[in-house]
Amino acid sequence: MGMVLGKITVETPKHEVVHTGAGYEVRKYPPCVVAEVTYDPAEMKGDRDGGFTTLANYIGALGRPQNTKPEKIDMTAPVITTSGAEPESIAMTAPVITSSGEPEPVAMTAPVITSDGGGEAAAGAGKMTMQFLLPSKYSKAEEAPRPTDERVVVREIGERKYGVVRFSGLTGDKVVKEKGEGLKAALEKDGFTVKGPFVLARYNPPFTLPPLRTNEVMIPVE
Predict the structure, then answer these.
(1) Domain coverage including residue 181
(2) Contact in structure between 217 and 9 (CB atoms under 8 Å)
(3) Across the 222 residues of the chain, what is the mean pLDDT of every consecutive 10-residue run?
């Protein structure tokens, strides 16, 4: 019931608010470890979240984890897509297990990031890259379970800053584009340098009532 009403009870990325503007804030996020996969939505019937199943298999959300430990990891929030993505929320549920013998629970963090190729996770023309942020317990890529699917890459990303605007409701293309353009204009007016395209962060599964959903548009800045 709590998830239907928009309650977020899962782990979300830690950050520091370094600036508060008119209707937005700038956040600094610490380094983290991500698992990512690059794919062509055209090969998945236009599904722009098509990398989700591959990464879900890596962490064990859909069955036995496809990693060498094997280690099963809980999914959390948010799911993140770049501008232009077909905005569709992805449910986040799964148990978590660490194993070198008997599995034991482990936490996974978020966001899951999908890129059209304009950000840190650059892909080829027409392709996208989706990321799951792994738990903060993994400070180095080599500490994370190694994928058995060669399409999944585990790597480290450094400290980064985002301008962020939060909103509720549905995340249709028009709304997201308007939020992104408004945020970009506000950031530039306040002297920030935009470093890449905006992304959409969705914190709730699709069965959450739209007025109670938490969404964010985020733009990387200097």
Answers:
(1) 16-27+161-221
(2) no
(3) 74 92 96 85 76 88 90 70 42 32 40 48 62 85 93 92 96 89 97 91 85 94 94
Cα→Cα distances 207→88, 143, 204, 210, Å: 11, 34, 8, 8
* Cα 39 to the center of its chain, rounded Å: 16
CA–CA gap between residue 94 and residue 73 (Å, rounded): 7
In a domain, 172, yes or no: yes
- Is residue 105 one of the residues assigned to a domain? no
Would you say residue 135 lies in a domain?
no
Report if residue 47 sits inside a domain.
Answer: no
Six token digits for residue 38:
């690059």
The whole-number pLDDT of residue 55 equals 87
Please give the backbone phi and psi of residue 57, each rounded to the nearest 5 degrees, phi first: -65, -40
Sign, CA dihedral 73-42-202-194, equals positive
CB atoms within 10 A of CB 63: 10
